[in-house]
Amino acid sequence: MEIPYTVRPRPDTGLANPKLGIWLFIASEVMLFGGLFAGYIFMRLGAEPWMWPHGWLNVPVGTFNTFVLIFSSVTVILSWEALKMRNFKAYKWWLFLTWVCGLLFLIIKLSYEWPNKFNHFGAYIKKEAAEKYEEYLGNEGEDGRLARGQAPRLFISGHPKAWSDVKDPSMDKIVLAAIDDENHTPKSAENDRAHFIPRDMVHLHEGHEVVLDKKDLVNGFGPFYPRLNTYLACYFMITGLHGLHVLGGVIVFIFFWGPGSKLYKTNPEQLCNRIEVAGLFWHLVDLIWIFVFPIFYLL
Amino acid sequence: MAEQHTHAPESKDGHVHAAEAHSHGSDAHGHGSYLHHVRPYLIVGVALFVFTVVTVGLSYVDFDHIFGSHGMNMKIGLAVATFKVCLVGAWFMHLKSEKRSIWIPLLFTFFFCLGLFVLCLLAYFNPIMTTGHTHH
After folding, report:
1. pLDDT, tens digit, for every residue of A236-252?
2. Rama region for A37: left / alpha / beta (φ>0; ψ in -120 to 50; rest)
3. A32-118+228-298: CATH superfamily
4. Which of A80, A81, A276, B27 is the most buried (most CB within 10 A)?
5. Which of B61, B63, B109 best tests the A interface by mutation, with the highest count of A CBs <10 A?
């Protein structure tokens, strides 16, 4: 059975079916991510002042990934244009660059950015135990956070001496071998979290032995997993879903670059429309990232 | 953009005949013609790169302090991001020359999406005023 109007516009809609279909799909995707962003805004506005994490993500890497996605958006449109001009060789090259960029984006995210978080430890201290860890929280005193009119810091993060201590329920203590800037110089105004914190890529201070009593910690302590706090839950949820979209796009492009490109011999215009439709999806993926990057990395 | 191109002839059911399509081989179009078609995309691509750098640069400026108002960095950052999204939508997704059949569902989407954000803000700012009546 042949599907009609794959290339030629339908008289009633004025559009070829795939194009109308992808736009309706894009509309549903906008609602999906719109809902997630709305939830993010709701939780961020509801967070206690000065408590929303800033500067947890690697800005140069995030910026590079943004460049990669924008570049791939340009290359997909160049491949579509090449196909329209019936330049098959150029089409293949541009599409190859597109899926390589998509793959590079995923590799950076999954082999560097996410594992970096999974190897980092964080714990919220119970309010009644805060005094015990004051040296690393910096709340008290004339130059403390409370005197500066801020909410108390109740968070300690760094690298544990042994992850087995964190995971083993029979161990009642966790020893941190390195701590983050916020806990190393807790009274420094540079570590206040009202805004984005520009800083060096490595800000971990080694040579410390901070002993944390598990009974002093709020449940959920451990690696920077989504369950640690709302920020990480939003970050992994939204970047994870976005990553799945990137993966979907990469698979489609690899198909049209490889076996799917045979369609050029029999019906190049239909292949052209397929690339246009896949390209529209890819631009949506780029478009979502344009919002994801500043809200999680920079603002 | 898409409408400006000369398409290969199609059959009545919307399919292109291979032989006719091949007559539009790469020889038929010059290199200059290709560059002419892709120039706007390259310009928009460069603009997106530049505005990404601008977004990163602006995040290092404490606008909250400069304007004395909380959330200014967020507003400015999101304004730049929205501008970038408009560039992608208008040029890369061809919305600037797209048909009503696409615009109308998108307007609905925009409206409902905006509704989601407004509902969140309503919940946060809680503008429903009490009437002053007390319950007995």
Report:
1. 999 999 999 999 999 99
2. alpha
3. Cytochrome c oxidase, subunit III, four-helix bundle (1.20.120.80)
4. A80
5. B109
